[in-house]
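can u pls check wat happens w/ pyridoxal-5'-phosphate
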Amino acid sequence: MENGSVWFRDDVLTLPSYVPGKKGLDPDTIKLASNETPFPTLPQIQAVISAAAGDLNRYPDMGATDLISAIAQFHEWPDSGIVVGNGSTALIEKILQAVVTPGSEVVIPWRSFEAYPIAIQAAGGIAVKVPLTPDGRHDLRAMAQAITQNTRAVMLCSPNNPTGPALTHSEVAAFLNEVPTTIPVVLDEAYIDFVEMEDPVNSPVLLRDHDNLIALRTFSKAYGLAGLRCGYGLTSAPMASGLRAIATPFGVNALAQAAACAALRSQPQVRAQVETIKEERSKLFAALAAQGWQVPESQANFVWFGFGERSLEFEELGAAEGITVRRYGDDGVRVSIAEPRGSLRLLRALENFRSSQKYQS
Ligand SMILES: Cc1ncc(COP(=O)(O)O)c(C=O)c1O
C-alpha cells in the first residue's frame, strides 16, 4: 500500500499541498519567504517562556483564561466572544470543519492564503474561487454574486496574502450587509498591524452588528511568535461557543499562552518594530517605483510580483543574491519586507531580472 490510497478519502488524497517558505540554504541567505518578522523574540517574552518551561509536565490551561482575558482587555471585546487556536490556521480549519457540509461551498478570493482551499477540501467542501481584480484586490461584488443556497461560509483576507492590498471598513461593512446572516464570514486579519490607509477596517465595530462575522488575528506576524503557533478569533458569543465545542482540547500549548500574554503586554516594542517594517516598506516601494516596477499597493509586510511564467527565473535570481522568496507556480512571487539588507538584495535581483536575456525575450 504505497500511497495509503485504501485508507484515505478521495478528497484527502487529492488535497493540494501547503508549500512552506524555503529556509535559506546557507547562514547568510535571508529568508523572505514566509512573512515572518526579522526581529528576534523580545527579551521579556523569552523570559516568560523560560519561566514557564519548568512546568511542562502539566497540561496547559484548557480554557486559556489568562490569554483570553488579555485579548478581551486589549480589544475591549467580551471574553465570551473570543476563541484561541494553535495558530490562526487551526482556527480556519476548525471553523470550516464546523460549518461545511459534504459538497457544500465556501466562497474565497483567489489568489489568497493557500491554506483556504486545503482546509475547505479537508472539511468536505468545495472552494469557490473568485478571481482578484487585476490590481490584486478582492472583487467583493463578484464574491457576493458567488453566494448561493449551497454556500456555507465566505472568507475574506485583508490585507490579502499574497498580493497585499487591504479592504476598507466601508467595503467590508457594505459586503456584510449583502451576506445572509445564516452564512459565517471569516475575515482573516493576519497582517492587520501593518495597515496604514484611509478608512481601515475596524473589526470590533463590524462585529457589533454582525454575529456571523469572525475576525481572525495571529501572534505569528507583527508579534513575532510564528514558532509558537497561537492565533485568536473575535466573534459573537454563539459563534465562539460553537467553535469552542469543536476545539482541539489543550490546543494552545502552555508556552504559547504565556508568551502571547507577554506579547500583548509588550505593545510599545511590538508597535516600534511594526513601524520599522512600515518604514522599510515605504522605502522599498519608492525604490521599486524608481526602478519602474508596478506592483499592487501592499498594506502588509510583503510585496507581490506577478511575473507569470518568469517566476522561477526570478526565484533563482533571488537565490543568487542571497534571498529566498515564495514562488506561486507560474503566477508570481511574494517577497517579505524585513531587514534593509533583504530589500537591497531584492532590488539587485530585480535589476538582474530586468537585464536578463530571458526577461527581454
Ligand atoms: C492570511 C494568513 N492567514 C493566516 C495565516 C496563518 O497564521 P498562523 O501562523 O497564525 O497560523 C497566515 C500565515 O502565513 C496568513 O498569511
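The domain at 43-266 is CATH 3.40.640.10 (Aspartate Aminotransferase; domain 2).
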